[in-house]
Design goal:
Blueprint lengths: L2 H13 L8 H17 L4 H13 L3 H14 L4 H13 L3 H14 L4 H13 L3 H14 L4 H13 L3 H14 L4 H13 L3 H13 L8 H9 L2
Length: about 230
């Protein structure tokens, strides 16, 4: 098990059950408890990362960044700290700082999938388009069985209106992992945009079989029916 996976797995112990708590009040209570514990152990990286998890869930990006800065002041090679500060910096539109965190992370764990993917998507968002495409292509070469990598490239191509290429990549993602409904939804929309009525309807029917309620898919169904 590589170092970054271990670090992120540890982090997920803190944050893995957050989605089950839907009420903001419950989230804030948990954050208050984490903050209280941290007051007695201000140098505890684990407790500070626990607090960061709640900050991120509540979209309190500035608070999360402040704590991640403290984590990395204590341990400038903390893998989870670098990864999540890159994520938080991107949310704050601090793209250059996010890029630096990803680059420093890749020095510690060369070739890491998550860091390379994050950097490629960041560069696309920051309009470093050539770098982004080179990086996502390289990622697929390194991880040819990764559905996530193909879907990421499909998303980039979709954003650039490269619809045929995006449809191909989402098809590859589905081939690698047919259980992810988002891949099917994206391919269905691309097929609608490409006026491929039969193929789009096939995706619609597959999504219904996968348990998606037809009502949630009605806007897509209506668009499919309009294709001549």
């Amino acid at each position: 098990m590589n170092k970054i996976y271990t670090a992120l797995l540890v982090f997920s112990v803190f944050s893995g059950n957050l989605s089950a708590q839907t009420k903001p009040e419950a989230l804030r209570d948990s954050l208050a408890q984490a903050t209280h514990q941290l007051a007695f152990h201000p140098d505890s990286i684990d407790l500070r990362l626990k607090k960061v998890a709640w900050n991120i869930e509540l979209k309190q990006w500035e608070y999360a960044k402040d704590d991640l800065d403290k984590v990395l002041y204590i341990d400038n090679k903390n893998i989870a700290g670098l990864f999540y500060r890159a994520y938080v910096n991107e949310k704050l539109n601090r793209f250059n700082f996010a890029r630096l965190d990803y680059q420093n992370l890749l020095i510690l764990v060369p070739g890491n999938f998550e860091a390379q993917l994050g950097l490629a998507l960041l560069n696309e968002k920051d309009k470093h388009k050539t770098e982004a495409m080179d990086q996502i292509n390289s990622l697929i070469e390194q991880y040819p069985d990764s559905a996530e990598a193909y879907a990421a490239r499909g998303g980039i191509e979709k954003g650039r209106n490269m619809l045929d290429l995006a449809e191909f990549d989402y098809s590859k993602a589905i081939e690698k992992d047919p259980t992810i409904t988002d891949y099917w939804v994206n391919r269905m929309e691309l097929r609608i945009l490409l006026y491929r009525k039969k193929d789009a309807m096939a995706d619609y029917q597959e999504l219904v079989k996968m348990g998606i309620h037809p009502g949630a898919l009605k806007p897509f169904f209506d668009r499919i029916k309009k294709i001549k």
